[in-house]
From TrEMBL:
Naturally occurring in which organism (per UniProt): Hydrogenibacillus schlegelii (Bacillus schlegelii)
Similarity remark: Belongs to the ABC transporter superfamily.
Subunit structure: Homodimer. Forms a membrane-associated complex with FtsX.
UniProt keyword terms in alphabetical order: ATP-binding, Cell cycle, Cell division, Cell membrane, Membrane, Nucleotide-binding, Transport
InterPro entries: AAA+_ATPase, ABC_transporter-like_ATP-bd, ABC_transporter-like_CS, ABC_transpr_LolD-like, Cell_div_FtsE, P-loop_NTPase
Domain ABC transporter per the UniProt entry, residue ranges: 93-321
GO process annotations (BP): cell division
Database matches in SUPFAM superfamilies: P-loop containing nucleoside triphosphate hydrolases (SSF52540)
PANTHER family listed in its UniProt record: CELL DIVISION ATP-BINDING PROTEIN FTSE, IMPORT ATP-BINDING PROTEIN
UniProt name for this protein: Cell division ATP-binding protein FtsE
PROSITE patterns: ABC_TRANSPORTER_1 (PS00211), ABC_TRANSPORTER_2 (PS50893)
Top-level taxonomy: Bacteria, Bacillati, Bacillota, Bacilli, Bacillales
Gene behind the chain: ftsE
Subcellular location: Cell membrane
Length: 321
């Protein structure tokens, strides 16, 4: 399973083969470390669950100054190169000739074919109505394709039985633009709610909630209610809740759409921090400035089709970085 960082330097969510020694969180609301942090082996970006042989790739260490996170070419270029060139990693998401037409006649996606490897951070962008939300709904099986095949983490979603859907959704965390927190529950209770359905011991739930609050920098707000938090803080709670079942894939549907520029940037930094420790992240956004500030692989949809699929290198070159 992906390993997530703690702000005190400890590592949690054991299971993946990692050798790095992460040091703190990154972004607004998180304590900034005084030293650059070390990201571990390329195994961080190829969770063992999705490797043919179960072996990690060769070791490398990337030193990153969190203060210039979005400007770090060492981090993004080396990681992207190893992810995309790795022969060990299996695709986490595979779409082959996928079309989605709704009953009202609207065709949201047309003949979409693409692949996303385990450990990638990918932007899904495009104008309103381009098909971004439909694409995400297909991945976590809220919708079914009209034509084509979709595979997510070994599940063939076109053949998935109803009893298998809960298992799929435990491996896919979802973050929404409107947070979808339960107003009558505290921050800690919102996160715990996602764990109670797994029937974990109460002690384990408390431990994991504490770890997740630490990860997103909200330990001091554990007993507050969503209405008492800012938009950025509510989104951090939503991210923590989505991570509670230890998903291999985190998909975020316009998670910064309701936030100001700097708060939005802090959310992207948090998602990148999570991604850096093994969780695959797909973020739908129409915010071009955010993509240019934090360049990563970008897939653009227009009219339900893939207009382009650009690696991080091309995105950086386009903005002169």
């Amino acid at each position: 399973m992906p390993l997530l960082p703690r702000r005190d330097g400890r590592r949690v969510f054991r299971g993946a083969a990692l050798t790095g020694s992460p040091a703190g969180g990154v972004g607004a609301g998180l304590r900034t470390p005084h030293r650059p942090r070390t990201v571990g082996t390329s195994g961080d970006f190829c969770p063992v669950f999705f490797c043919r042989s179960g072996r990690t790739a060769s070791s490398f260490h990337a030193i990153i100054d969190p203060a210039t996170y979005e400007n770090s070419t060492v981090f993004s270029r080396e990681i992207t190169r190893r992810i995309r060139s790795s022969k060990e990693c299996l695709p986490l998401i595979e779409m082959d000739s996928v079309t989605k037409a709704y009953r009202n006649g609207v065709v949201a996606l047309r003949d979409v074919t693409l692949s996303i490897k385990a450990g990638e951070f990918v932007y899904l962008t495009g104008p309103s109505g381009a098909g971004k939300s439909t694409w995400l709904k297909l991945v976590y099986r809220e919708e079914r394709p009209t034509k084509g095949t979709i595979k997510v983490g070994g599940f063939d979603l076109t053949k998935l039985k109803a009893r298998q859907v809960p298992e799929l959704r435990r491996s896919v965390g979802v973050v929404f633009q409107d947070y979808r927190l339960i107003d009558r529950l505290t921050v800690a209770e919102n996160i715990a709610f996602a764990l109670e359905v797994l029937e974990l011991p109460e002690r384990e739930i408390r431990r994991r909630v504490a770890e997740l609050l630490d990860l997103v920098g909200l330990e001091a707000h554990a007993r507050r209610f969503p209405r008492e938090l800012s938009g950025g803080e509510q989104q951090r709670v939503a991210i923590a809740r989505a991570l509670a079942p230890k998903p291999k894939l985190l998909i975020a549907d316009e998670p910064t759409g309701n936030l100001d520029e700097e708060t939005a940037a802090s959310i992207v930094r948090l998602l990148m921090e999570i991604n850096a420790f093994g969780t695959t992240v797909v973020m739908a956004t129409h915010d071009r400035a955010l993509i240019e500030r934090f360049p990563r692989r970008t897939i653009r949809l227009e009219g339900g089709r893939v207009a382009y699929d650009r690696p991080a290198r091309q995105v950086r070159e386009a903005v002169g970085r």
